[in-house]
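Apologies for my clumsy wording, but could you write out the amino acids of a protein and the C-alpha cells describing how it folds?
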Amino acid sequence: MSTFNVPKREEVSEKNQAIFDNLEKAVGFVPNLYATYAHSENALENYLNLSNAKTSLNAKQKEVVNLAVSQVNNCTYCLSAHTAIGKLNGFTEEQILELRGGKASFDSKLNALAGLAKNLTVARGAADETVVENFFREGWTKENLVDTIVLVGDKTISNYLHKTTDVPVDFPEVQFLETVGA
C-alpha cells in the first residue's frame, strides 16, 4: 500500500509540468517514481540529468547494473521497470533473472560488470579487490569503473526513493527473489 501520493501534472511546478510533458512524449507516460521526484522543485530535473548523462556504458550494460543494484536493494519498482527495459535491450527472462543475482554466465564481460555492481552495492562502495581485478581482466577500463560507480549511485537513489515512498509500481510487476539477492 502506497504511503506517499504520486503527484498529478497540475499538482507540480511549471518547471516539472514541462518535464512531465517531455516524458509523456518520450516514454508515453510519466512513471510514478519520476512523478514522485516532482514533489521537489529540482529533484526530477537533477535526477534525469544524472540518469541521462553521457557514460562509457551502453544501454544494455546500464541495465546489467540497474538490475543487480535494484535486486540487492530489494526495490520492486526498479526491478519491474528495468526488467521491462532489459527485455527491450535484448535480454531474455532467464538472463534478467541471472543479472539480478549479479551474474551473467552467458557473457564473461557482462558477468564481471554484474558482479562489480552487486559487490559495490552489497559492500556500500568498498569493492572487493578480486572483483575489481576480474572487472579489469575482462577488458573494462578505469573510465568504465568510475561510470559504473556513478550508475550504482544513480540507481540507489531511485531504489531509496521507492523504498521510502512505496508509490505504486506502474510496470509489469516482478517479484523479489530472495535466492537471487543472496
Remarks:
- The first helix runs from residue 14 to 27.
- The chain has ten helices and no strands.
- The CA atoms of residues 86 and 153 lie 19 Å apart.
- The mean pLDDT is 94.
